[in-house]
Amino acid sequence: MIFISLLILxxxxxxxxxxxxxxxxxxxxxTAIIFLYAAGLxxxxxxIQSIESGLGIYSGLFHVTVTSQLIDIFIYITxxxxxxxxxxxxxxxxxxxxxxxxxxxxxxxSSVNNPATEYSLIVIFSxxxxxxxxxxxxxxxxxxSLELQSFGVYILATLYRDSESATAAxxxxxxxxxxxSCVILLGIALIYSYSGITNFESLYTLSSSIHAFSFxxxxxxxxxxxxxxxxxxxxxxxxxxxxxxxxxxxxxxSPTIVTIWLTIMPKISIIFLLFEMINGLNLATSLxxxxxxxxxxxxxxxxxxxxxxxxxxxxxxxxxxSLIIGTVVGLSQIRIKRxxxxxxxxxxxxxxxxxxxxxxxxxEALYFYIIQYSLTNLNVFLILLAFGYVINKNNLINNNLINxxxxxxxxxxxQFFHNPILSLSLTICLFSMAGVPPLIxxxxxxxxxxxxxxxxxxxxxxxxxxxxxxSASYYIKIIRVLHTEEKNTNSNTTESNELVLTNFHSxxxxxxTLGILLFLIKPTIILxxxxxxxxxxxxxxxxxxxxx
Length: 548
Hints:
This protein is mainly α. It is built from 25 helices and 2 strands. The protein is 74% helix and 1% strand. Helix 17 (360-391) packs antiparallel against helix 21 (440-454).
């Protein structure tokens, strides 16, 4: 569905007669509808009986399961919500441009040179890569899907070609992202050179035979190095410390509408890929017989069985660095997107703790944490975009696209007195990110900490608690600036800060804010869902093992 829609949109842009009659906003809305329709198709496919045991397609390159389909639904819906932030920008811009006669009639109708059109096409490319990555069952398909997703976000970072900062961010992202891809490719090459196989199930069969007859030890060592390189490359792409240095610069220099996508979408697919790998590793340690289970990288089972690779400690070490660096370095930030970048690194630390533990309770915590992380970050950036439209209205009127973003925390000073509802919404989101009860962010951190203590990872739990308390200070710093009254305010300032949002943008911000605030009143919707996913993941494989 996504691929066919992408081809149709490309053909529509290439035909002049169609291109001149399509507005850029129409492409954005069509893309959002495509995502929603694709989510509906993924939901309908859950009723196919063979999906329950996994369905191999394209000669084993991809393996579709219930879990991968459910994550696809979440990715598509989140992508559709992100796209809603752009039409307000264009509507507000074009309205003022028409009024002031700043653009020609031909430019009003042209959709080729407008960033909105390129944005809609590139996010489809990136989402297609994310969807394929979740179902990959071969190193070749995994690498190509990862690169399809990555090249999309590289281009998004340089979407505003007239901005030097955006161009520098995209170039840095491309170079360092290419380095991480080379590390992953090196790991794949090592595994292939020692085994001659790239398919996960075939590698599982080979490795089990090697260890059953206890010969060819160098093969195991080569595969071990390959797995370590693959995990390091994936940790680099989700900005886990100490492989995080690219993230603050890229997030800060990219336009806010692009930063939303970079912060949420690529991380979801890679984190769940890591999750399925780690789940296979830990599950094998409790199985006495080898079974091909319903996870993508089944060949990892045998490696954990014989203690060849202890990925758990690699993830715990990365989680420790992420929690400390994301908290300590974030305290000194004065640019709001850099601060949110270090906040993301800290959140990745909590996610990696749940990944490393990989018990039934930690998997529930992992699902729940990613859901609340995505929704909270989406709401924060939607609010920052709205503040950018308000504070930098003059730049919009002068047809200046680049300077409409909020860059410094000080730019939010006194906004509570001009836009109290929007300021309160941002305050609620920041308190949730800090883990203040009874907001949804508190419960997500609580479940991760509970699973860590339950698994006797007391040191990681103590570090997570301390860093969570310390990180609350830089969220409070933003809240203090919001509620600090500006000096020498006058009526002209108040008038220039009048807020004008589209109905859907306002509805989305209010809905997400109420969901964060009132989660305690009706928590069963999300909690029951993540519990069912965890039961589906663990009990299905346990039952299949018992029946053998």
